[in-house]
C-alpha cells in the first residue's frame, strides 16, 4: 500500500500550542543560562507538530522518525507565554517526508526551518535497533 492510499499527501499540516513552563527553559535544558524557551524545546515542538500531521494517517505498524532538522531560533520567549508551532508537509520522496516548520509566541515569529522524517515499519526498525545490543 502506498502513501496516498494511507492519506499521506503534500499539504497535510498540524498546529500545536503550549505554554512555556520551567521545564522548557534553556537553563533547565542545560542549553543556555537564561530563563527563556530553549532551542531544543522549540525543536521538539516542531518535530511533534510534523509527526502529528501524518501519523494518524498511518496504519498501526508504521510510524515516522525524525532524521534531519535545520531551524533558526529568531526570538526569545519567556516562561508563561503561549507558543504555537506549525508544520506542513511540503514534499514526499518515497518514504522521506519534508516539512516546513514555524514557531510563534503571542507577539511574533520565534523560529522557522525545515524538518525531515522517514516512514518506518515499527517492528523492523525496533529489531534493527535491538540487534545493536547483541554486538
Can you tell me about this structure?
Strand 4 (about 95-105) and strand 5 (about 110-120) form a beta hairpin. The protein has a 5-stranded antiparallel sheet with strand order 1-3-4-5-2. The chain contains 4 helices and 5 strands; from the N terminus they run αβααββββα. The model has no long low-confidence stretch (mean pLDDT about 95). The protein starts with a helix and ends with a helix. It has a single domain (about 5-135), classed as Hotdog Thioesterase (Thiol Ester Dehydrase, Chain A, Roll), CATH 3.10.129. By secondary structure, it is an alpha+beta fold. The protein has helices spanning about 5, 25-30, 40-55, 120-130; strands at about 15-20, 60-75, 80-95, 95-105, 110-120.
Question: Which regions are unreliable across 5 or more consecutive residues at pLDDT < 50?
Answer: none
CATH superfamily name? Hotdog Thioesterase
Order of helices and strands: HEHHEEEEH
Molecular shape: globular
Specify the biggest β-sheet. Answer: 5 strands, antiparallel
Helix content: 25-40%
Radius of gyration based on Cα positions:
16 Å
Strand order of the biggest β-sheet:
1-3-4-5-2
Quick recap of the structure?
With 135 residues, this protein is of the alpha+beta class. The chain is 26% helix and 40% strand. A 5-stranded antiparallel sheet has the order 1-3-4-5-2.
Amino acid at each position: 500500500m502506498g502513501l496516498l492510499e494511507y492519506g499521506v499527501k503534500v499539504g497535510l499540516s498540524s498546529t500545536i500550542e503550549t505554554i512555556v513552563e520551567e521545564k522548557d527553559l534553556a537553563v533547565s535544558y542545560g542549553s543556555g543560562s537564561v530563563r527563556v524557551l530553549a532551542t531544543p524545546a522549540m525543536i521538539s515542538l516542531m518535530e511533534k507538530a510534523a509527526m502529528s500531521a501524518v501519523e494518524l494517517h498511518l496504519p498501526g505498524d508504521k510510524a515516522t522518525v525524525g532524521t534531519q532538522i535545520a531551524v533558526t531560533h529568531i526570538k526569545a520567549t519567556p516562561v508563561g507565554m503561549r507558543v504555537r508551532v506549525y508544520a506542513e508537509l511540503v514534499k514526499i520522496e518515497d518514504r522521506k517526508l519534508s516539512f516546513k516548520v514555524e514557531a510563534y509566541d503571542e507577539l511574533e515569529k520565534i523560529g522557522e526551518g525545515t524538518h525531515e522524517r522517514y516512514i518506518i515499519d515499527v517492528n523492523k526498525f525496533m529489531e534493527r535497533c535491538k540487534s545493536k545490543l547483541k554486538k
